[in-house]
Amino acid sequence: MSADQVGTEAETASPAQTSQPVTHTAGDASQKTTTVGGATNASPAAATPALPPPPRGFSPTAPEGFRVTLYAEGFDKPRLMAVAENGDIFLSDPNAGAVYVLPDRNADGVADETLTFAKGLDQPHGLAFHDGYLYVANTGSVVRFPYQSGQTKAQGAPEKLVDLPPRGGHSTRTIEFSPEGQLFVATGSTCNVCEETDERRAAVWVYDADGKNGRPYATGLRNAVGLEWFDGALWATNNGRDMLGDDLPPEGFYQLSDGGFYGWPYCYTVTAGQPQVWDKDFGQADPSVCEDATPAFALTTAHSAPLGMAFYTAQAFPEAYQGQMFAGLHGSWNRSQKSGYKVVSIDPASGEVQDFLTGFVQGNTVKGRPVDAAVAQDGALLVTDDGEGRVWRVAWVGRQQVSDSAAR
User: Is the pTM of this model over 0.90?
Assistant: First the structure.
């Protein structure tokens, strides 16, 4: 689905309901689920994040032992985050044309204030720190600002490094750095299904850190909004095509490789890890094309729109979450029964997908649209919600503390 076209529905709020995590079989694109138990206990050495008071009114629901609180609010369209070396949270807001800083100096689990690092940008989206700079992906360019630890306001205009095809059907751009310092840029397609004339579209390109020597790295990705290096590889979320009904194609998660082709617009994954299938809109099938397409390693329900993601590498959560991918499912706009509207965890080894943060939708009533996940310096998971202009915080506190808090 088109992640940049999903904010148009008129939707009203309803209170969240309690739920436990749900397991999805990696190769099953349906919504059949099996309920499983809560998280395992964390090790004694795990850090215990601060415990701000629960929010009044709506809050999403996490598995037993986790506490969900409001970290910051009042944004127009909060999207992707980056964590500075001192722990400050940087946040992009494309509608405001701004990048914000959300410091938590007293470590109480709530942003002390919202500071504007830069404004007047052209739909800023992807953020990344590298070698003394904050890189920002606008819709039509990648720019960078000099940055020193603790800095909360840009000094001067940014330096433009890369020209990108602006706007189009998918207007957001995502950036990521490899451990070796290569800059990766994801740009979505102009359309639902088409053969692009600009090879930068529906692809991830790689550049030197100064924006030079750009070339295709991965192609056939209709809209890869989530992009992150982990365990020696580049991983991506992807928004599949629309107009094939409620259940096709399922949304996919991919491990990328240099020169890899991932199917769009000709093929798509139906079963995780298995060969892709031919898209009927392209007439008679050419089996060789789909044979060359790398399938998704994990799937979730069609049109649920996986966007930003983060791998959990801190120690505050239970051991079962170590090395798991957390991804925001923004939610469907064209499905008879809504899908997405939650944060899921994905096991990169098995492809198993589990619900993690839910309650953003009950029936056809929507109370938020998760976008990105980021691991804060204290080990809590931060989640942006561009439907309600908020940033949520999920911290492990143990089952007893959650029970005691509810009793009060």
Answer: no
Residue 275: CA atoms inside 13 Å, Cβ hemisphere, count?
Answer: 8
Please give the Cα distance from 193 to 264 (Å, whole number).
8
Peptide bond just before 249 cis, omega within 30 deg: yes
- φ/ψ of residue 315, rounded to 5: -115, 0
Picking from 178, 176, 196, the residue whose alpha carbon sits closest to that of residue 186 is 176
Q: Give the model's confidence band at 400: pLDDT under 50 very low, under 70 low, under 90 confident, else very high.
A: low
**pLDDT tens-place string over residues 61-77:** 999 999 999 999 999 99
Q: Which two tokens stand for residue 171?
A: 């207007």
**CATH number of the domain located at residue range(s) 22-407 in this protein:** 2.120.10.30
Phi then psi for residue 405, to 5 deg, are -65, -40
Cβ(179)–Cβ(155) below 8 Å? no
Residue with tokens 């992707």: 80
* HSE-up of residue 81 (Cα within 13 Å, Cβ side): 33
d(CA 136, CA 25): 36
Residue-wise pLDDT tens digits, 291-325? 999 999 999 999 999 999 999 999 999 999 999 99
For residue 3, what are its two tokens? 């992640």
Provide the token pair at 253: 């998660």
The letter for the amino acid at 132 is G
